[in-house]
Design a protein that fits this description.
Order of helices and strands: EHEHHEEEEEEEEHEEEEEEE
Number of helices: 4
Oligomer: single chain
Distance between the termini: 27 Å
Structural class: mainly beta
Number of strands: 17
Largest sheet: 8 strands, mixed
Strand content: 35-45%
Strand order of the largest sheet: 1-2-9-8-7-4-5-10
Helix content: 10-25%
């Protein structure tokens, strides 16, 4: 499997992954021995279940320290600067608002925090040999807002953190080897260490602008600018600015524009 996504639910419609169960053993083996990518969400899976219901303690594998059972106050939740959730902010309308409180430990890092009640509720973990994302709320209970605060953008960001590039769906060719639609494909690999690949296609001749911006919107690098003929293109960004200097690790935005099309994608640069 490229990734395993586990949704154990919110009380009283939750499932308990029992300690010693075949499910717990298989999931732990998937991470530790198969270099897996795993997403796990649940209102009680981190704190209450391991302490009081015989649930398996996934905390150490996920870089999570479960700190409290919580109370009925989840939401709104906000993404964190310097991570793949930067700029995200969601109100919450799940089955109920009673969620475990969790914080990062070891190689884990915070990706979501309840803003009005000041507790952590989402942690990602890069353990080198495997990667995980753990939430104490239901992703499906988030209320979409202005991009990037949408569930679709969040799922896409999680998949990219896992190193999974979703096929953008290239149009069938017609009338020769030219695309039927102008579009930008996914940027990869993401996170990026040395070189980011940016693919795009033009259905007709157009003035193209392909630029990289930092997290506060400042222009970092002009990758492509000028007129281009119809066809398929691949551009590369080497992590440098327009003066040839290596830029710091962090979140950057790649914006592709023509006269009648634009798209922006987030890229995480790591050292």
């Amino acid at each position: 499997y490229q990734a395993v996504l586990v949704f154990v639910g919110i009380y009283s419609n939750n499932y308990i992954i029992s300690s010693g169960s075949p499910e717990a053993a298989a999931l732990a083996d998937y991470l530790q021995n198969q270099g897996g990518r795993m997403y796990l969400e649940g209102g009680d899976v981190w704190y209450y279940d391991p302490l009081y219901s015989g649930g398996y303690d996934f905390g150490p594998l996920f870089g999570i320290n479960a700190t409290a059972d919580g109370s009925g106050d989840c939401g709104p939740v906000a993404g964190q600067t310097g991570t793949f959730t930067v700029g995200m902010n969601f109100s919450y309308g799940g089955e109920n608002n009673w969620m475990d409180h969790i914080s990062p430990t070891s190689t884990g890092f915070l990706i979501f925090r309840d803003t009005d009640n000041s507790y952590d509720c989402g942690v990602a973990n890069d353990a080198v040999t495997y990667r995980t994302v753990g939430l104490s709320f239901e992703l499906g209970g988030l209320t979409d807002g202005t991009p990037p605060s949408t569930r679709r953008a969040l799922v896409d960001s999680i998949m990219k953190f896992f190193g999974i590039i979703l096929n953008p769906g290239v149009e069938e060719l017609g009338g020769g080897d030219l695309p039927l639609r102008t579009m930008m494909g996914v940027v990869y690999p993401n996170p990026v260490v040395k070189r980011l690949t940016i693919e795009y296609q033009l259905a007709s001749s157009a003035d193209v602008s392909l630029c990289v911006y930092d997290a506060v919107g400042r222009l970092v690098r002009t990758v492509v600018r000028g007129a281009a003929a119809p066809g398929y293109y691949t551009a590369l960004w080497d992590g440098r600015d327009d003066l040839g200097r290596r830029v710091p690790a962090g979140v950057y935005f790649v914006r592709f524009e023509t006269d009648d099309y634009s798209r922006t994608q987030k890229a995480i640069l790591i050292k």
